[in-house]
Amino acid sequence: MRRAMLLLSLVLSIGCLGSDPVATLDGTYTLRSANGAALPYTLSQGAGTKVELLDDAYMIYLGMTFSQSGRIRTTVNGQPTTANQTRAGNFALEGHSLKFRSGTGGTERIGNLTGNTLTIIEVGVTYVYNK
Predict the structure, then answer these.
(1) In a domain, 14, yes or no
(2) What is the pLDDT of residues 49-64, one digit of tens each?
(3) If we measure between CA atoms, which residue out of 125, 128, 102, 100 comes closest to residue 114?
(4) In principle, which of 15, 22, 51, 111 could form an S-S bond with 43, CB 3.0–4.6 Å?
């Protein structure tokens, strides 16, 4: 009897998780660090020019789509300018991996999702986002 109750509670617990893994993915993932460093993160620097990533976020939607927005600050000879960067597209879910494809083409970005943490490694930089 005890074994039957344990099996029944396990089946009910699994049923409560739902069958749509995307339902647990949706939400906003905000960039917390780049290569372990806090923001702003210096993307490049040299000859009087410095480019920094100020912030970034991925918004993941139930329809297997996403949008991304962030700000980049470029300082040339001490004069800073800030630019907003946005993109949108769709994503494919393969296990814990998400493949982000922009609607305008460009580079496909691959992220790994563990709990509420999205990690994207791109051009030698590890970006960590939290939901």
Answers:
(1) no
(2) 999 999 999 999 999 9
(3) 128
(4) 51
Rounded distance between C-alpha atoms, residue 64 and residue 59, angstroms: 11
What pLDDT shows up at residue 23? 55
Q: Is residue 53 domain-resident?
A: yes
Q: Is it the case that residue 76 has pLDDT exceeding 50?
A: yes
61: buried, middle or exposed (CB in 10 Å: 19+, 13-18, 0-12)? middle
Question: What is the tally of structural domains in the chain?
Answer: 1
Flag whether 3 is in a domain. Answer: no
Q: Do the domain assignments include residue 10?
A: no
* Residue 15 pLDDT class (50, 70, 90 cuts): very low
Whole-angstrom Cα distance, residue 66 to residue 90? Answer: 6
